[in-house]
Predict the 3D structure of the following.
Amino acid sequence: MCGLSVFPQRFDLSAAAAVWDVDTPEADRSLGSLLQWSLVQWNDEASRYRLHDLVRLISERRSSPDVLTQAQRRHATYYAGLLQKMNDQYLEGGAAVVESLSWFDAERENIDAGFAWAQRRMGQDEVATQLCVEYPDAGAYVLNLRLHPQDWLSWLQTQLAAARRLADRRGEGAALGNLGLAYADLGDPRKAIEHHEQHLVIAREIGHLQGEANALGNLGLAYAHLGNTQKAIEHHEQYLAIAREIGDRRGEGNALGSLGSACADLGDAHKAIEHYEQHLAVAREIGDRRGEGNALGNLGSAYADLGDPRKAIEHYEQRLVIAREIGDRRGEGNALGNLGNAHADLGDTHKAIEHYEQRLVIAREIGDRRGEGNALGNLSSAYADLGDPHKAIEHYEQRLVIAREIGDRQGEALGSWNLGLLLESQERLAEAVAAMEVRVAFEREIGHPDAEKHAQDVEEIRRRIK
């Protein structure tokens, strides 16, 4: 019974064996005895054991501090390994994606408890400190989908602090890079740049070319979010050069794709297509199906920019097939959203809504809050096109709730602006100005080049208020 109090709720046979540090048959016999005495409970539906609450209190009080610490250390170590298995299963694609997320949900309390123990013991226990570095990397894909963005940020800040305590320079660089991506996802490109630049310094200092390449690529993406396309291109070109130097074909493809996006931002769709086609060729050459799908999706967007929605649809549909084939649920949702946009461009708003609603279902199914918000925003635009402003406003407001909830300031800014445009069309000018000022304030804060242009647009609306 000693040690089982480390489980916050339910646990299975393998976990008990790990905490007791015994083989599975011995753990099975011990749990059988505890079941006979009703000291543990068994749940047939979940196939899990659970320690009786009163027994948990008694166990905690009777266990010596050393015994309890050993059990907590084994518990945290076991669930770090289990988290890695969940992540590996997610990367298998197909039905494994949803299975891995369901597995995570079933073990969520134990994973949270394991990481929380490691956080509390960081700096006092070497294993705990190392686990603080390992947990975020072990479950990167599932954690990014399941943790609230602010909680994920907290995990990554802990990872950084632990890497620094261990004087793990490569780990410190990786943690800084992860934090940069997290801040970018939260709509704070300046903070993202700050962390990616620190990662770049460390990578160059220790001669880690792969880390240097990753940092340069991420800096390029962050500068693109700031609207500084030329600086984005500079960084993507450096990323491309290093990727080719070290033979990182996947990185080469990603850099080409990013350069294509930068050209698209400059309004040069033809040059964007050149880069996307090179990315597509690399992805197919190395069998990178995810990269192939991304390249096809980008090509679809480029053809949409050229005013060729039918060719865009052709590429989006290929992207959708690949996403479904490899089980990339987030990619599937993005493809459906883009197909909706293309059908909207063709004037088929009802078909666009069908695709947006499918995207919304997927986003909610996998816990992709950002994707859910984007789908709601697309639905808002579609209902506005159908002449249903009330339904459009309803969806914009839901989109804004999500953006604020997850701390997506960029999403909040764009959503507020679109809501303001709709309110303006309803002659609700004061409300429109209040909503649109959110974007102006955000763009001024991050130094976006369009901030003052948008501010002038708002002032023109303000002058019309009687």
Notes: Residues 4-63 form a domain with the Arc Repressor Mutant, subunit A fold (CATH 1.10.10). DSSP finds 23 helices and three strands in the chain. The first strand starts at residue 10 and ends at 11.
